[in-house]
Amino acid sequence: MAECLGEGVDPTKMCQSLVAKVAQSEQLQAVAAPEVLALFEDWMEEMEREVLKHVERSGQSDPMALADALGLSRSGASFMLGKLQNEGKL
User: What is the pTM of this model?
Assistant: First the structure.
């Protein structure tokens, strides 16, 4: 998974960038937003599965260990852990 995403992927920045780009163009928003959002949702679901799998295997939810294991930035790992905790999945 880490090779696919590249080093230092930050879901928060990725989401902010996506929202900003969609908001820049009403035409893009009208035509591509549903498809782009669907792809983003699929990616987030895959990230959640990977995070949960890592936590289950390692028995810990340390952001640094998660970042190293999945090729995320520390803030991205913290975001994912917080999100899953807030949703009651962790």
Answer: 0.62
